[in-house]
Design goal:
With 295 residues, the chain is α/β, with parallel strands linked by helices. The protein has 10 helices and 13 strands. Helix 1 packs across helix 5.
Length: 295
Amino acid sequence: MHILMTGGTGFIGHRLAPMLIAKGYQVTLWTHQLKPKLPQGVTQWVHRLEDLPEASYDAVINLAGAGIADQRWSPERKALLISSRVETTQRLVEWIKHQDIPPRVLISASAVGYYGEQGEQLIDEDTPPVDGFTHQLCAQWEAAAQQAASTSTRVCLVRTGVVLGQGGGSMKKMLPAFRFGLGGPLGSGQHWFPWIHLEDMARIYLWLLEQPQAQGVYNAAAPVPVRNVDFTRALGKALKRPAWIPMPEKVLHLLFGEMAELLLVSAKMQPQRLQKAGFDFRYPQLPEALQEICD
C-alpha cells in the first residue's frame, strides 16, 4: 500500500510514519518545508503536489496545520491557522479528485476544538457544538476533507484531544515547569481535559487505515478523561515533584489573550465510535500513560 501523508514532519507524523513503514507500507510526504526533518524510515517527499511521481496512492493521511498553541491568536495568526488547514486540505482534495485511480481512503485530522466549551456535558461524536473560533476552524477543516468522499474514497475525520508523548506536543512545553516543581492547575482546574497518549494516537490512524468499513467522525481521546487538576496531580506524581502552584484564569488571559481558551475549555470527550468498533487503547488510564512518558 502506498500512502501519501501531509503534516508528516510534525509530532504525530514522526511516530505514525515509522509505524506504517514497519507494517510494510510505502510512505511519501507532501510538505511545505524546503529541508524537512523526515520521520525515521521515510525517504520519499515532495514540496509540491505537482511534483508527485505518477503512481497510484492507496490512501491519504492529512495531518497538515500550523501549531494552534504556538503563538497568540492575532488576526494574522488566525488566518494562518485556517489557511494551513482548510486551504491545504482543499488542494489535497482537488488532487484526489483528479486521480485516474483515487485513493481508497482519506483520513483527515480535526480536533476536540470542534465541540467548543461543553462544561460537564459528556461528549460523543453526535454532541452539538458550541460556536467559537476553534469550532469554526474545525468545521471548515472537516467540510473541506468531506468533499473527497465518493463511491471510491471513504473519509475519516479524527477529532483529536491533547496528545501526550515524549519530545513534542504539549508535554514538551509543560515538563520543564513541572520538573522544577512549578506546575499546577490552570484556572479552577475543574475543567475536563481530553488527553491521549501519542502511541494510541498513531495507532488510531493505522486502525482506521486498515478498517475498510470505517468512515465519518471519530473522537480520538483516551476513554477515561480527567479534570485539569487531576491531570496536574498525576503529572507531578509521575515526576515525583509537587504540582500545586495554580495559574489564575486572569493571568492566563493576560499571557495568552484569546488563545487561553485552549487551556481553559472543558471537553469531557469520549471515543465512543472507536470503542464500539473494537479499538483497543494501549494507554486508557492517565497514570500509566504519564509513567511511560516520564520514565
